[in-house]
UniProtKB/TrEMBL annotation:
Its cofactor is Mg(2+). Pfam families: ApbE (PF02424). Its EC number is 2.7.1.180. This is FAD:protein FMN transferase. It comes from Salipiger bermudensis (strain DSM 26914 / JCM 13377 / KCTC 12554 / HTCC2601) (Pelagibaca bermudensis). It catalyses: L-threonyl-[protein] + FAD = FMN-L-threonyl-[protein] + AMP + H(+).
Amino acid sequence: MSLTRRRFLTISAAFAAGPARALAPARWRGMALGAEAEITLHGPGAEEALEAALAKIRACEARFSLYDPASELSRLNRTGKLDASLPFRVLMQLADRVHEASGGAFDPSVQPLWRALASGGDVAAARARIGWEKIVRDGNRIALGPGQALTFNGIAQGVATDAVAELLAARGFGQALINIGEFRALGGPWRLGLSDPEHGPLGTRTLDTGAVATSSPAALRLGQETHILDPRGAGGVLWSTVSVEAESAALADALSTAGCMMDADALHRAATALGGVRRITLVTHEGDLRSLSV
């Protein structure tokens, strides 16, 4: 398995009881969160669990997808206001925490800048619209500032990964590796490889439980810019790859995104403040590895 951001997402799980592996697996292949995806489940109740896992993924898409014009996020971006569901507000609260801990390096309001760079628009005007603090929240209601738009591409895949992992655990699937853009493990051990788009394979790690999320800015470029943008307009990306191991995939996802723009000391402070982070692996632009224990 690779820790680079892949466009093919996989979920493989087996029921905790050993004999269940002999049963025919339940399989599905299609699109999820804008990428090709595959789910394979082994054991009693696999068909029902497969349907429930797909429902979890579709629910995340209906809330957080930029690809679905009817999603909550798309409606918020289109109209500038939203009566948000509880899961949407919970994601916003986690974004609050990571935004504060990262000194603003994590900021979903970077979407106008992403669009301007992708389409050749007015970059200066787009950058002026960035600002998590400009968003107004009153109970269920969310209102964006003028010209603002959000992207949850640096956190929503982690949310979906956690949702499926928790579903499978509740249904007795004791051995599972869920990859919905980020990895989350049940049981194990699972052996994962760390790879960088510039420097190739750089080693392996073993994951028994918990999650790993990896961000590699150079995996996709918008002209001269990487696809991970510094919302503060500061020094840009500092690392070739940032991989975060944490208790939840959502937290690992958000911090690995922010970490690309943070020096090692700031990243360690953020991880300590957030809690639930176990280890961070940094790949320099020269291909050297640095590990931070939290």
